[in-house]
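Exam revision sheet. Question 4 asks you to relate a sequence to its structure. Input first:
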Amino acid sequence: MLMRSLLTKMINLAPDMEVVGAAPDAQDAREMIKALNPDVLTLDVQMPKMDGLEFLERLMRLRPMPVVMVSSFTESGSDITLKALELGAVDYIGKPRTDNGKSIESYAEDLVEKLRIAKGARLHRSVARSPSATTVAMPARAGLATSGAVIFVGASTGGTEAIKDFLLGMPADCPPILIVQHMPESFTGSFARRLDALCAPRVIEAQGHEKLEAGSVYVAPGHSHLLVRREGGGLYTELAATQPVNRHRPSVDVLFDSAAAVLGSKAIGVILTGMGKDGAQGLLRLRQSGAKTFGQDEASCVVYGMPREAFLVGAVVEQCALGDMARRVIGAIGS
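Answer key, structure tokens:
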């Protein structure tokens, strides 16, 4: 009750929003959704009578609507939240806390921004991600692992599922892949393990100073920027806990800038669904360094923000649907 009251006050302070109902459990929520027809739903995981994941699965099957999960940012909570995103939730936010150095006012700003984004997001229901609809991994290709190419990927809102779909299309001998997905540090380890269990390449959360290897994917941890650096005859990951860039740490721009400086035409840049403009200027510098660059198209994005900004500044060489992205990227290597 206290959390519902607090969220209600925060949302009602926004000039363009109004809370039309607050439900104590799934049964009440179901009836209130029918009666009040809200634009967006916030949903907890732990509820009486029916847990949030079961309710979300039924909701997205019977009455799809934008959902923002309100979940505790813990190890177990991150696994559950990632499952919720897989089921069709647009985004997530932690429960307000006073012990993380973040003010209630700052939390409220984040909350209402996520709700605004969710209202305009395209819903991609989990049924669309069945095995029959998912990109099939390409077979190993001669010379792919020794091409010298490195793939750099950036994403935000909607990116957890977009990255998964992209990696599902990658063969086990793909070039090294470095990924920045905007998410809290308690989530990135779970995210990497989830991808590793599903995809042909090996997926790990970067710890810093890993030598880049073919068939390996390195996910930026939520507490640091991820960069690539050259040492001797090899390429390595590097972490930097420096100031946020474009309000984000890790930042896609930081990753892309390091790729442009170190690899130039041997890099391939990919920008996927997400709100804001992080990655647009970095992708442009990648293109100017001779790299091939790709942007997800509007129709397949949950939020056509970051790819749109990149496209508008001339950073995108080729724009394509998510389901075709892996094939296009592999095809560009050595072309």
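Marking note for examiners. The chain has a mean pLDDT of 91.
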